[in-house]
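My current task is to audit a protein record that another person submitted. I have pasted the whole thing underneath without changing anything:
***
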Amino acid sequence: MFEAAEVGDALSKEKYKALAQKLRVELLEAQRELATSRLSLVVVIGGVEGAGRGELANLLLTWLDARGVETHAYDEPTDEERERPFFWRYWRELPAAGRAALMFGSWYTEPIVRRAFKKLDSKDFERHLDRVADFERMLARENVVLVKLWLHITKKEQKRRFKALEKDPN
């Protein structure tokens, strides 16, 4: 499931600036088309701490018509969410047809964190990933377009960013 990740690809600031305005116009046009369709869009934004998830979401919200975009952030499940099926907390916040949602954290977060801290063995982790694949296939059948973004930076860059934040928390 994670094999398709692209690592090491970079875009220079000059190329980004040259492409950004065109991309912005194309995203707005795609959002207009979405608004008149039976589709909904879910963009899952994940990544390591300090990689720029919030900055990416803020950029998308300035580029898109924010009236058609919802944002959701997930932390520890509430008591109510723990009493429900695992995917319930995500299902109930899916956008309506013609709308988009940006999701910070997702159905991947808990099993990845539990696996990283050795609270989930590899068999249970694979079982959970199978359930995730089933959930995502169901979303596709329900006309949900799913875009998953994973932001990664090196440990050296992460450390540099954390130090910069310590100096200027604003």
In short: Strands lie at 40-47, 69-73, 100-104, 144-151. Helices lie at 13-35, 53-63, 79-82, 88-91, 109-116, 122-141, 155-167. The radius of gyration is 18 Å. The mean pLDDT is 90.
